[in-house]
Amino acid sequence: MPAPRPTSGAWRIAGRRLGDPGGPGDEFCALVHLAADGTLSLTVDDATRATGIGGWSSAGRGRVVARAELFVAGASPLHPNRIVVRAAAELSADGAAASVRLQWQLVGRHGEATSPLVACEGRAERLQP
User: What is the pTM of this model?
Assistant: First the structure.
């Protein structure tokens, strides 16, 4: 097994959509596990109740980029069933937190975009020492 990376482990991300007037639908929380092998798993606590997997890599000292795909609960053939997320994070000096910028988009069963890109920002906190 690869040696743990400074960013691997369990994280909680709390954030909000950019450019929206505000309100409970504009906020999200996600639990993310970054494995030392470069894979990730996540669950989103919002109306979608989406769960997903993806990959992440270092983008320089204290920086991480990631891409994930999530399945949306209750999707149907008439509605999109996946969310594609691309994210970038910058770690704090102590490695216990990070600022996060991400974009997500709904995609159909065959990978076609079914919504515009949505930009978000947030803060991640490490859940383990």
Answer: 0.84
